[in-house]
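hey so u asked for the seq, here:
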Amino acid sequence: MGTLAGEKIMTIIQSITKLTLNDFLRLPETKPASEYIEGKIQQKSMPKGKHSAIQSSVVSIINQLSISYRKCRAFSELRCTFGGRSLIPDISVFSWLRIPLDENGEIENDFVIFPDWTIEILSPEQSSIRVIDKILFCLNQGTELGWLIDPKERIIMTFLGNQQPQIHQGEEQLPVLSILSNWRISASDIFACLTLENRE
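ran it, structure tokens below
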């Protein structure tokens, strides 16, 4: 469904009645994708260059590090429905044993659990407060770790349960999932993917 058509349908539906979560999940998917938060539909921003580069790089880095050791797996733009909301983190990471499987032992289509690690990448037109609210909601539901990556400011804000958020930049080591405790990565490592070397 096109963006404008999807927005029109959502506007009409929400003007008539407050949508339930089940009502929302029966709606056609929109592009960009939409999330269900506190009875309202919020459409995500369309990823641009920096956002897309960071998202694909971080997913690749985590999966190269962890899949072969069966530690965890990172997913890009995966719908996660839990705690009365239906969210689509830019990146969601699940520990190996929590990844839902179907009757064939394959990865399930519907994830109705919270991620162990949620990562959001701030787009220029996004409200940082709304994105932080999503991360805090995940932590309150059981998520271990949250990252908010700000490409413009070159900072990463990290969230851990029962701790104040921390700002990281440069070569500071970032907190990672406890099952990846031997992994060392900095904000500079994350933002390095924005530079194209040897382009001649």
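The two ends are 40 Å apart (CA to CA). The chain has two domains: 1-43, 45-194.
lmk if thats what u needed
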